[in-house]
Amino acid sequence: MESRLTCRHVTAGASYLTLMPLRLEEMSLDPYIVVFRDFLTEAQTEAIKGIAKPRLTTSRHRGPGGNFISSMVRTSSTAWLRESVDDRKKLLVNMTRKIEFATGLHALESSAGEDYQVANYGIGGLYVTHTDYLMINPDPRAYTPWEHFMGDRFATFMVYLSDVEAGGATVFPRAGVTIWPKRGSAAFWWNLYRSGAGDENTRHGACPVLHGSKWISNKWIHYNDQFKQYKCGVNTWDKQMVP
Ligand SMILES: O=C(O)CCC(=O)C(=O)O
Ligand SMILES: [Fe+2]
User: Fold this and answer.
1) Which numbered atom of ligand 1 lies nearest the CA of 218?
2) Is the pLDDT of residue 26 over 90?
């Protein structure tokens, strides 16, 4: 069967990208998952790891009761980095601006994008399959006013800050996609349909690191701030197929 997946250069109508288009590789059309090759330079990935290293603590994730816990579901360390803090402002703000150009989404305002979450996995480090969207409890009281204001995690922009010598792939079992970590590459996918409903087929996980160490950085982009660029569509299951 002929593959419908393509690779292309992306300028997204942004003059900033005209002289250095992004290199996009489609990994899946439904759900829509792409990889941007060489999104960050080696110097940028090293600088981000340098800022994150002294701030790493045991990773936590949302547990069955809705609160954040650490468990064997996710065995990594994480640090949260906010763009506005002085020592990192230029690097992180530029990175977020580039994410905005690449995706057409708002990501810099605190209501649109979360702080960067940098994660480091040692040998055996993994993240069991999960969805990145979190607001699955039908009881609205389960969420804070701020969570209601931002909406759920519409899209994920995840940059690999390291190569991994063996293991450590990001896998989407339902979509049949495997992404091997490559320093500077970035994976992007939509967690929600255009309507805001969660797309179960975006379920993904991080395979155990077998040799070496793995570093990633997540920027989660939220739903409610995007309503001007991305209309909600007529049907619940309408999808985004950009960039
Ligand atoms: O490390 C990976 O490859 C995936 C990480 C992930 O899914 C997450 O942090 O939500
Ligand atoms: Fe995830």
Assistant:
1) 9
2) yes
> Which residue has a Cα nearest atom 4 of ligand 1?
206
Task: For residue 112, count CB atoms less than 10 angstroms from its CB and return exposed for 0-12, middle for 13-18, buried for 19 or more.
Answer: buried
Cβ atoms of 197 and 235 within 8 Å: the answer is no
Give residue 179 CA to ligand 2 midpoint distance, Å. Answer: 13
Q: Could you tell me the distance, in angstroms and rounded to a whole number, from the CA of residue 129 to the centre of ligand 1?
A: 9
pLDDT, tens digit, 9 for 90 and up, residues 41-85: 999 999 999 999 999 998 887 777 777 888 888 888 999 999 988
CATH 2.60.120.620 fits 28-226, yes or no: yes
**3-state secondary structure at position 150:** helix
ipTM above 0.90? yes
Domain ranges of the chain: 28-226
Q: CA 32 to CA 29: how far, in whole Å?
A: 4
* Phi (first) and psi of residue 219, to 5 degrees: -120, 115
